[in-house]
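Need tokens for this chain, all 281 residues.
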Amino acid sequence: MLYQVVKFAATPLAHVMCRPHISGAVHVPRTGPAILAANHLSVLDSFLLPALLPRPVTFVAKNEYFSGNPVAGWFMRLGNSLPIDRESAHAAQAMLDAATEVLERGDLFGIHPEGTRSPDGRLYRGKIGVAWLALRTGAPVLPVALSGTEKVLPVGAKVPRPARIGIKIGAPMTFEGSHANARDRRRVTDEIMAAIQRLSGQEYVPAYAASVKAASNGDTPASDGGTSASNGSAANGSGANGSAPNGARADGSRANGSAAGGAGEATSKIAASDAGDGARG
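Here are the structure tokens for all 281 residues:
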């Protein structure tokens, strides 16, 4: 009930402030589950998207958003976001389990596969939680490209400002394979990221955004190598030249269901390897 009240108030506000141009809304199913996999440019991405779509969408958000910027925290609580501790592997798996429940209820779940906001507007390598959800639940994935949202609430800003945004929603993607298979998860994730890139036109970077942020801050980069090792994928190999993720099909259509290798990997390792996958950051 609270969500509907907030949405009733937030939708006209979002239209006035953001003057959104929305395409592909017809792809959002009227009923039944679906995963909205979006690029990530602003802390308000997962507030604006639900506000401008006809159905409720549940996103996840890192704990800091609930206790940091008061404006962001207010949006997160009213937007029915799920908090997650990105440093806790157990919490990350709990988030995936909670997302599974949302989808099994027939609702929409939103996720940012990059795991954190892009530091420079480019599209970064996706983490595998989105593939785990798609393969575990069978829910279709809708690739979503956001643009201009970083101008609404720039990094460091406390108050949103008017700016025109764009939302492009692609056709639903369905996949074959096992959520317990490391190569299937990596393959599906790369296909989803390729579909997002085709919609957004962003330059693609075959590295995790969190590591790039850490390096730019002089910190020790996150253990992305550990993620790659645990999910069974080889190095992507593509340069940061705007090319699609390696191994992704050019048309973004249904995956071919190959299941080579990694079949015996325990599903619980996902949380350990990709803690905080998809949480806004």
